[in-house]
Amino acid sequence: MFLAKSFIAVCTTLCGYGLLQSGMVKFNVDPTLPCIFIFFFAYLVAAKFISIFDVSANTILQCYLYDKDMAEHHGLDLKHVPPTLLKFLELHS
């Protein structure tokens, strides 16, 4: 998750630096301070989005494990698991 957040922040900072150097900004400013602000703001936004992704991935995995446990104890089929997830987990188990 740290790599994803850092990658997003660095790419956004590079885009901001490119915009500052291309002349889209009318002011002649040293790009260091704006790039630092861009990096920290992009990192904060990326952290929020990545944390939502992390929680959703953990929730899907927890629901799968609960369904699998209930199916094993009661002798039922795994009926709530999407076929793509089942194929992925069988391939990597």
Supply the key terms.
single chain, 93 residues, mainly alpha, 3 helices, 0% strand
Provide a descriptive summary of the structure in words:
The chain has 93 residues and is mainly alpha-helical. It has one domain (2-91). It is 78% helix and 0% strand. The chain has helices at 2-22, 32-74, 83-91.
Topology (SSEs and partners):
Layout: H1 2-22, H2 32-74, H3 83-91
Helix pairs in contact: 1-2
Count the beta strands.
0
Which range does the strand content fall in?
A: under 5%
Could you estimate the helical fraction of the residues in percent?
over 70%
Shape: rod-shaped
Count the DSSP helices: 3
Order of helices and strands: HHH
Give a brief rundown of this model.
It contains 3 helices and no strands. The protein is an all-alpha fold.
